[in-house]
Amino acid sequence: MMRRDSIVDRLVGLPWFLLMMILGLASLGIVVLFSAGSGEIDPLTGNQVLNAQLSVAHAWRFGLLLLLALGLALVPMRLWAAAAYPAYFVGVVCLILVELFGVTVNGAERWLQIGPLRVQPSELMKLAVPLALARFYHQIWEGERQSFWSHLWALIIVVIPTIPVLRQPDLGTALTLMAAGFAVIFFAGISLRIVVAVMVMVAAATPLIYFFALHEYQRRRVETLFNPEADPLGAGYQLQQALIAIGSGGVTGKGFLEGEQKQLDYIPEQHTDFIFTIVAEEFGFMGSLALLILWAVVIVQGMNIALRSRNLFGGLAAAGFVSTLFFYVTINIGMVIGLLPVVGIPLPLVSYGGNVMMTVMVGFGFLMAAHLNRDHQMAIRGVF
Amino acid sequence: MSRDWTRQFVNRRNIFWGAGGLVFTGLAARLAELQLLRREEYETAAEDNQIRLDPAPPRRGIIYDRAGRIIASNKRNFYVTLRPEMFTSGRQLVDVVDRLSAILPLSDARKASIIRDAANQPGFLDILVADDLTWEDFARVNVMAPELVGVSADVGELRAYPYVGAFYHTIGYVQKANENDIGRMIEADLAQMGIDPASQEGRTRATTIRRIYKHPQMRVGKQGVEYFAESALKGKPGKQRVKVNAAGRIIDRLASDDIAATAGSDIVMSIDAELQTLAIESFGGEAGSCVVIDTRTGEIVVLATTPAPDPNEFVSGISQRAYDALLADIQNPLYHKAYDGIYPPGSTFKVVVAAAALETGAMSPETRVYCSGRAWYYDRPYHCWKREGHGSMNMHTALQNSCDCYFYEAAKRIGIEPIAEMAKKFGLGHRYELGLTGGKQGVVPNDEWKRGRIGEPWYPGDTISVGIGQGYMSASPVQLAVMTARVAAGQACPNPKLLVSGIEVPDNDVRELEGLDMATMDRLRAGMYAVTSEAGGTAVRAGALDPDNTLPPPYTGARMAGKSGTAQVRVISLAERATGVLANSELPYKLRDHALFVAYAPAENPRYAGVVVVEHGDSGSRVAAPILANVLGAALRNDPGAKPAYSPSSELAQVEPHESEPT
Lengths: 384, 663
Hints:
CATH architecture of the largest domain in chain B: 3-Layer(aba) Sandwich
Order of helices and strands of chain A: HHHHEEEHHHHHHHHH
Structural class of chain B: alpha+beta
Oligomer: heterodimer
Shape of chain B: elongated
Distance between the termini of chain A: 31 Å
Radius of gyration of chain B: 34 Å
Number of strands of chain A: 3
């Protein structure tokens, strides 16, 4: 087989269909954020005051990170593998530093202030965990040493960063880390019997977690889910307003910029975690479904890339990242439409905010790199 | 190896797709349920959404005195508003306003202006019908409410000034913003944010600011600290979700912490309200001002002007009649005498002239000048206040007796420029930025000033009058207090300060007192001590602040050291001199001399320095000195400077209940 390795060949070989889907989702984000930023009514004219600030910032952020992702796509798999453990290690150290010297924002310690930079190490971990796990399994498989116990080691790799994140407290990120980690373990071939057993155990332990492990505000969110009318002025009201926004969107929606619910400012974090309410209110069922389908296509594409990788590292890490995306999308939409309790998880590429966008775009960079390097066999030795 | 895991990978991917497909189908199904099946239900809910977003004015910052006493706060305010958009016809509006006037005291003019506003303003801006209502009026409107479409009776906050007139001139007052105020606030805000007023963002901001200042509860600082510190005091407006019924009446307020207003910063003044009140009382019925500075910190502990109107009357709009009466008052209550009033410093200025004489070497302390009651300079007679003359005077006795002839001679020998220079070193001729509106620079005249202002060169004769603080020389009481504080504490005295926390008040290019000989300062203090404490001193009766030794140490038995001054308001003609100068009591009020006294205490180890000016009070030593003695005595007893100024905690201040409100 001919080796195609020049930069041009690599660019031609990029997963262009996937890139188009990403571009489509980010564009949807730009459009919806324009609407989200334009809620205010001019008291003198009665017209809506248009404000493109959010969408312009979103567009810039996406554009720059897309360039970064394309650059990362050209990074050879060997380098990704070499970076996996150091990234994981730095991330864990940072998480511990956050615990010791973190900056508190919105009541949770998530940030580490380094000079002018504010770093959120838990974001780094969302990629570092699947990468580290993939490398771990890659070496296990190479050495033909796989056994039940290797999965236990993998579990430890997942748990170490999860504990400080839970303590911040950032339930959303902790769940994301676990989802990414368990996905890799799952794809690495842990026995299905164990998977089923763990699921049964989790189901059995749910009441215990609810009563003993959750914070008071988290318990309230769960209660809200089952009984939105219980707390009509607090959390319940917000969910109810979100549901009214979505439901009143109907089949085709009220039209771009025509959403009424958003003008009441009642839906919390409408430009970030609850951005989906605007999609649903202004573009209706068609719009929401289109969004879901776009994401489904991205996930299927991503999973196919993972599958075609001939090196285990690339395949497993890609599967881990795609699972993270799947987790993001389902949890976010699930909570907005009242199927899941509210946890702080944004809708990637559409929600406003730099950190998740960064994580996701670096992840796409890796996914594309995995695609370009799908035929490479690779041997990894040692720890660095 | 690779074949092995690839096969397994396909297997696992299929499981993932199965589960993932199921989850996505679930999401789609739920969306279909909400948006297709239950659409109508939610559409109705959206229409029924009786939640309205109202602007929520922020709580205005509290102003405290140095001991944490409240000088300006917010009391509960019952008010009634009307929302024009709820009316279908003009007749309905007039009808509702008529019905309201049956319950509330509304003048015909007020009714007309409400109807006019309702026609001219955007329909969703509430119009204030009446505020500061009694609980009874408020309750009556609430009972009648079902018949009054578009009318809301509401509870908010209104500015209250518990010390009534005592702080009128310093604090100022707030009122409803007019177009000028709104324009000014928009301009200041955009300039601060660096936004172009013509840009989209600039117009949006302007609209938001306009809307919040149009709110019935919002006031803007019109004068004094309220005006100067508006940006700090006003806070950040927020929004409030309210549930309204079909008639537009608010039936419930919903939790809105996420969009709530942010309260303004509290401001602490260096004034001690108790001392301030005492100072004002000490004036009796006289008009004038008193300023006292803590020489250790430069903090102004008294800044009193009397008489003063009640700022509370201005908050909801003072009536034209009451305002005209204030304007016509011969004692000029609207005028901030302590800060805006400029007076010839009179004999109090002799301290500065003495300093200039010593520093330039024009006079030695023992140089003697003979006072016959009159001296001739440049073919013109200049009179001493004592017709029969003081005889031979040196610097000490000249200060003690306030001999004019001595200082005419001193001024002549020194020349105007060194005198002007010294006056500036002692803090005259500069407008001190205290964080208030107004403030005068006064005049420290010299050749350059006169050419610029009057268009004539300085004549040597002009210098002679300046020697006794008359002529072109003028200063405000605040400046005279700084001058006295500098005499008392020398270079160690910090620049004057009124606002301790809550806002920065930069005052650049203040002239410092520097380069003066310690011996000179000692001689000035000895001279001022002689005025109040050595036999023959002009104010020797007022010198003892603690005759019964009741003050705690280190102030036990304290005396003050001071200097009196009398500022002529009229020119005494030669004819009048010939027939005998008229006594002040024979003159109409407006022509009587101003009485000045500057002093510090305790004399040996000065802590507080101040000034009293009694307008048209006749005699500095007889009228002004006892008032200042009273105030400085109280200052030593209270010793406000002994404790650092109050620092407000972050707790939300309590809203005082309305007096007529049942508890």
